[in-house]
Write a structure and sequence with these properties.
Radius of gyration: 25 Å
Number of domains: 2
CATH architecture of the largest domain: Alpha-Beta Barrel
Oligomer: single chain
CATH superfamily of the largest domain: Aldolase class I
Helix content: 25-40%
CATH topology of the largest domain: TIM Barrel
Structural class: alpha/beta
Distance between the termini: 68 Å
Amino acid sequence: MKPTREAVLPVSYTINDTPDAAFLEKCSIAGTVVFADQKELFAIIDQIRAGESAEECARRAACEQGGLQPAAIHSMQMLFGFSRKSAGENAAENTDGDAEGAICGVYFSALADLNDLEAGAATVATAAAATAPAPEVGSRKDAHLALSQNDFAAFLSRTASERAFRIPRWNKAFSPSVHGSAVTRRVLQREQLHTVCSSAVCPNRGECHAHGTATFLILGNSCTRNCRFCAIDHGRPEPPDPSEPQRLAQAARDLGLRHIVITSVTRDDLSDGGASHFAACIHEVRRVLPLATIEVLPSDLGGNMAALAVILKAGPDVFNHNIETVPRLYKTVQPSANYRRSLDVLHYAREHGQGCHVKSGMMVGLGETPSEVRQALADLKEAGCDMVTIGQYLRPTLEHLPVAEFVSPGRFEYYEKIGRELGLASVFAGPLVRSSYRAAEAVMAAAGK
């Protein structure tokens, strides 16, 4: 007769929905459930080796025990952390004070591309998952890992499969104050202004509106480019409205803004890419709110440095231009843009920006690797950036690129650490961080205040 789960597993499980860097440091094991075409291939659990991160362990185990080539795994997502302690009030204590048999680990999902799998790899992977031995145990704390390994792995694999395509809790946006949000919307509607908050379906628009802030979107609401991540309408835009700078400044004054962020749709149809309109907005805000700081977020202006000089001469406090993603993904994510051209724009702003802060931002969760993000941060530092934002890509509609990975809070902490080590003055990284999210705080941080 097959024993019951209670008789076989004298342990209790605890799931950690938001494992942070401190939790990951305590982990001794890592598991992976591997999918291809949204179908589960296999699940593996293994012990983390010395000098190996949890993610590196999960990736290695999937390749070694699952028969996959490293190139077949194109993204990994941290699903949850887990801990397990021996049951019973009289569990023996280790010298560290932990209950004997206590285990701390983390589970990932991995997406594999069937086109990159070697012949028969999926069959090998399935067989490996069924016959994979328990991880090596070398201490009393690890001893319970071998106990009923099949039941333990099955529990974790089942939990991982249930969560693999679910948006994690850390990607839930703030619920706004109805009053504050309504006041902001009323001012914007009165002045007939667009915001990137609404046009790009930003997850933070409720929070920002509740705090009386918004990122103004000038030069219309229709973009001449059709990037595969962006929700802003694509089409033939209207001519620039000469009254827009005055209406924008009036709205900024009525909202009581101390830091104004101005961005625009890409206007490749205009000879200067809309640079003169940006300058007019800066001048008008300066006239109405002389003590406010101004941040501009233009496109690459087609690489027109003379047009860029027009914006910089107007004297913004922050010049922001987003690289959006790593070089390898440019053709997929924004085929009309160019990574090197964007770096050149940032470098020009550093050289000719009259002392303004230079800022950039990027999305993660599109299939990039941590090493590619690290290199992009190094490129931004070399180009002259002192401020960088990194946030989770969220698919605005089914017509846009799918999310390859929901990046864990612990990984965002890692990106912030790397940015600081590279010498960037301000690095804001997190699931809901966007280029202009809490922009005034970023300026204060960069200034060391």
